[in-house]
Design goal:
76% of the residues lie in helices and 5% in strands. The chain is mainly alpha-helical. The protein has a domain of 53 residues.
Length: 414
């Protein structure tokens, strides 16, 4: 009869390891669960010895096959979906980690998964093992996994988390796709203008130096600008770099970051756009957290840490403190002045009908549409505007360079 090794926890959380003989893995799992144990890992000792006998050369070949070093959002969402599927199929967490680690594309993530497996074999729960990799797994991950472990519905919670990650990845992809074209236009426009300024205008300037005539004002201005840029380009780059470094350093301070955020929020058009993006992210996280059974205070605390904006983080912290004192969520949201009345009313209705996660999901869907619509309109307006500006500048340059030639031809005709 095959022998299986297992790792489990009793009701007090004490780690228990041992070996059992049984006809199958399912029989061992049922036998241990009947004793009130929480199963972490069960595998055949033959399979385990096969794993341990894998040579170092084979490990290196396995790592070499992996496609990239860094851990991408796609790596995390795929891992979450695979783990949810395997756990839902009745496979234990440690076995699932072994299976997934053989398929990941990231070399770094491969080692992260091996680390998770090692720490869980030493008796840590999954969320405790994830806390040792906070640079990889966010507080949202850790708290949702902890909620799933506590409720015994880890597969269900991971499925919701996977849906959240995939939804966010699609949304970010749409934003990036919408911004790529304007960035390319700006880059091409700047390169074209620099080429004209540094190469074409100096050539004409050398030609005009032999003319015995006064050059038009536009021509003199263009030649002077070109000469200034050619002689002081390096100095200008250094000055811009220094200014950028000083601003970045100041923005690294709490006061500087707050002032920058306040300035951005006051910008026409783009201030509202940033607010919409933040509300979209906040509603998406709150919906996922509450739906997964995370208490409202913990959900607000996680959102406070992950919102990525100090000003809004302070607002969420104040909302959390008022909810802690027994107030409804909608009341401090209304008092903050950050959330639009529609959002506040929808949250209030969600509290009344007991479907807060559903309301946050509707808010999230609305703001995703708002952001996508804004980006579509912005890109459709930016393209002709950029073409007009670049065309006008190039047109002025062309006219300025050819005016002396036209004047010279008139003089010759006379």
């Amino acid at each position: 009869m095959p022998r299986f090794s297992y790792i489990a926890k009793d009701g007090s959380g004490k780690k228990i390891t041992g070996n059992e003989d049984g006809a199958s893995q399912e029989e061992i799992i049922n036998r241990l669960q009947s004793r009130g144990l929480i199963i972490l890992f069960v595998e055949s000792t033959v399979y385990k010895s096969d794993i341990n006998s894998e040579s170092a050369a084979e490990n290196l070949k396995s790592i070499a096959r992996r496609q990239h070093l860094r851990i991408t959002a796609n790596d995390l969402s795929l891992f979450c979906r695979q783990l949810a599927t395997l756990l839902g199929a009745g496979i234990t967490i440690l076995e699932a980690l072994v299976i997934i680690s053989k398929q990941v594309s990231s070399r770094r993530f491969y080692h992260v998964l091996l680390g998770l497996k090692k720490w869980m074999e030493e008796g840590l729960s999954m969320h405790e093992a994830m806390e040792k990799n906070k640079t990889v797994f966010s507080q949202l991950w850790i708290n949702l996994v902890e909620s799933g472990e506590a409720s015994g519905n880890l597969a269900v919670v991971l499925t919701r988390l996977a849906s959240y990650l995939e939804r966010n990845a699609r949304f970010r992809s749409k934003i990036l796709s919408a911004l790529i074209y304007p960035v390319i236009l700006v880059f091409v426009g700047v390169v074209a203008l620099l080429f004209l300024t540094l190469k074409i205008i100096p050539t004409f300037a050398e030609l005009f130096s032999g003319f015995k005539m006064e050059l038009p004002f536009i021509t003199r201005m263009l030649i002077g600008t070109s000469s200034f840029i050619r002689h002081y380009l390096l100095l200008m780059v250094i000055i811009v770099a220094i200014i950028f470094f000083i601003i970045k350093k100041y923005m690294g301070t709490m006061e500087g970051r707050k002032q920058f955020e306040t300035l951005v929020f006051r910008l026409p058009l783009f201030g509202d756009f940033l607010r919409d993006i933040i509300v979209e992210k906040f509603s998406s996280e709150m919906s996922t957290l509450i739906e997964s059974g995370v208490p409202i205070l913990y959900a607000l605390e996680i959102s406070e840490r992950s919102v990525g904006n100090i000003t809004v983080s302070d607002i969420i912290r104040e909302i959390k403190e008022q909810v802690k004192q027994g107030r409804s969520l909608s009341l401090p949201m209304a008092r903050s002045g950050f959330f639009e009345p529609m959002v506040v009313q929808m949250v209030g209705i969600g509290e009344e009908v007991g479907d807060l996660s559903g309301m946050f999901k509707k808010i999230n869907e609305f703001y995703q549409e708002v952001v996508e619509t804004f980006l579509t309109r912005f890109t459709s307006m930016f393209e002709p505007l950029m073409l007009i500006v670049v065309g006008a500048v190039i047109g002025v340059m062309v006219v300025g360079m050819f005016m002396p030639i036209f004047q010279l031809s008139r003089i010759g005709m006379n």
